[in-house]
Amino acid sequence: MFFEQERRDFFRPFISKYREQIAACLQALYEQLYTVQADYDSTNTREKIIALFQETVTRSVVIEQDNDNDESQPVKSDREQANWILNQLLEYGWLEKQVDEATLQSSYAFTRVGRLFTQSIVEANGAAYRTRHRNTRNVRNALNMFVEQGDVYDLLDAFEYSERIISDFSDTIAELDERKRELVREVESQQLVEKASEEFFQFMEKRFMPDLSIRLSADSVEKWRDEIQESINKARRKRKEFKAAAEKNLRKVAPELIESQGQSVLLNLLERIEQRIHRASEVMLPALRQSLHGFTRRADIIMRQLSFSAQGRQSDIVNICQRLSQLDDSSMAEKLEQAGTALAQLQVGFFDPQQVKLFNQKRKRIVDTRVEQDESMDQDARKSIYIRQTVERAFALSNQDMSEYLVKALGRGHSIYSHQLPVTTARELLIRAHAIEVASAGRQSSEFRFIVEPTGARKSDRYFEADEFKITLVQDSEDA
């Protein structure tokens, strides 16, 4: 459980009116400990952290609210407020106190969970820069290293990078939608074309050009998709010794990835990486392009409207309306009548006979919507239908059931003889009787296929006496 022991009230500091100050203090401490501003020569004593918090509290705002709780009582000075914030973060598990046993000096640092959540706050405020467009290329590089050297950590890195591809796409789409709403909100509240234009071009220069444009062109997921798929296929076609060693190391290094003892962790990771790359290329990339197009289109429309308004073309209409509002009803009606007469135009002319055409009336289609009366069925008829449906379901076999049975029977091998297929249930006996049908064209996939070859021998057991066949599972690329 997450909310246990010292994390029972982990988010309690963020329900008071001082939550903005607390978030600012966490961000300032994170920047001092983990960014270029970090000072590794000095110890983070209580006095040093209180001084940092005091400086941050001075620059931060207090969110006023109607009913304050007991923890939101006002303090007398910034130093007392900084001391109160430090005690709150220590009490609720954001920070921890560390004591040096040799010198008996105390220092303060983030807890593991506190650092992770503070990192999210820092990234949400844009204080950290991430090369999001590099994740697709990192997947390709890590997979190539795994295929060449067999290091399972490279495969785990590729798996992690593939997850970041989807999350980065989602973050970027959400950021574009948020910026589009902010642009509309600021324009409605301020009506400043200069500020709207400046923010739009600032986004295009600082956010679009360094990251989005590269992701949509040079580092597009569509560009590296084929190379990633080729690396995945190479990993699947590796020798048994290579895959067995990788499987053993994966189960030792990452036991949390084991879903079941009979399922391969290696093949599962490769399949999930393949699915994520396919989803990023087929779903997330078009969604990103559509969101970016909507953002730029909305910005263009708003700036055109504001530019048109800023040129003074609408000022005459506003002045006329103001002057009319100062007149009485009779004078206003007279002025409007004069304007209507001046604007009215009478056009007299004849129709062009060539433009007048008579079209045949479309005949309406008559649809018979009457419903035939349902005749009642007797008990024997219903019994016959029920027996027929039950028998059909009992002897119906799907392509997936037959393929899963054969793959399970193959285990880690590539071929098996028909008389060696195991039978533990009546359904497996039925599948064994139809096993050679997997070689038909309708049961082939885009990657694997079964080859059924007669051996010329005739075998008999407690179930059948029939010709023997050899069933082999191969990959299309491997067979070609």
Can you walk me through this structure?
- With 480 residues, the chain is mostly helical.
- It folds into 3 domains: 5-124, Orthogonal Bundle (Arc Repressor Mutant, subunit A); 132-310, no CATH class; 396-479, no CATH class.
- Helices cover 58% and strands 8% of the residues.
- The chain has helices at residues 19-34, 46-59, 78-91, 112-124, 135-149, 152-190, 193-216, 221-236, 240-253, 265-310, 315-325, 329-343, 379-394, 399-410, 426-433, 476-479; strands at 95-99, 106-110, 415-417, 448-460, 465-475.
- The strands form 2 sheets. A 3-stranded antiparallel sheet has the order 3-5-4. Strands 1-2 form a two-stranded antiparallel ribbon.
- β1 (95-99) and β2 (106-110) form a beta hairpin.
- α5 (135-149) runs parallel beside α8 and α8 runs antiparallel to α10.
- The longest helix is centred in the middle third of the chain and has 46 residues, at 265-310.
- The chain is flat, with a radius of gyration of 36 Å.
- The mean pLDDT is 76.
Q: How would you classify the quaternary structure?
A: single chain
As for the number of domains, it is 3
SSE arrangement, N to C: HHHEEHHHHHHHHHHHEHEEH
User: Radius of gyration from the CA trace?
Assistant: 36 Å
Q: Give the termini distance in whole angstroms.
A: 52 Å
Give the low-pLDDT segments: none
Shape: flat
Number of strands: 5
Strand content: 5-15%
Number of helices: 16
Residue-averaged pLDDT = 76
Helix content: 55-70%
Strand-pairing-aware structural class: mainly alpha
Major beta sheet, strand line-up: 3-5-4
Biggest sheet: strands, sense, closure? 3 strands, antiparallel
